[in-house]
Structure prediction request, 206 residues.
Amino acid sequence: MAKIEVEHRGSLTEKQFKELNIFLKKNGKFLEEKDRFSVIYSPRGKESLKVSNSKIDLRPRITNKKAELVLKYGSWGGNDARKEFSFPIELKKFEEVIEFLFILGFYYGVLQATNSYLYEYKGVEVVLVDVPKFGCYFEAEVVTDQSSIKNANEKIMSVCKELGLNVFSKKDFTQLLKKLNDRPGFRFNFKKQKFSDIKKRFKNYF
Prediction:
């Protein structure tokens, strides 16, 4: 059965990012650092980046040289609860998966590259995300089942309040997505370009 990921997000200043790393290293449990490259698709057959309006969040991604195909299903925003499906794939077949999805009608979307620090704090996974040459934000999440979504939300909100973190409103989250999506060179259209050319730009992730 697919797990449900309850997740809250919000922006961080560079100062907050540094201070939280120091605090969580001392008071939480450091889990890992993640270098991640994602190919995030718009809905099939649509050349639109208003992905927050779609329940389908499809993204092949590479994390610390390990590849997977991920589908998150459900409405999403500053805080949400979505089903998550993850299927490991061989790194050498990543480009083949891009071709496979192209045949199925997925060809347009946005690229994302991040460096993240993951901590566990009071039962919540707190992720501090740095987007190179853009800025920082956080994700606070709990993996649970359908019956425990309310409790998970309450636990996350309590931790966010303690850490002084403000969660995005739906409007704020949509604005963040727009800023990320509008960065020059980060949109893709595989009807007009080759993934092999994109791969050269992000070769450090492969």
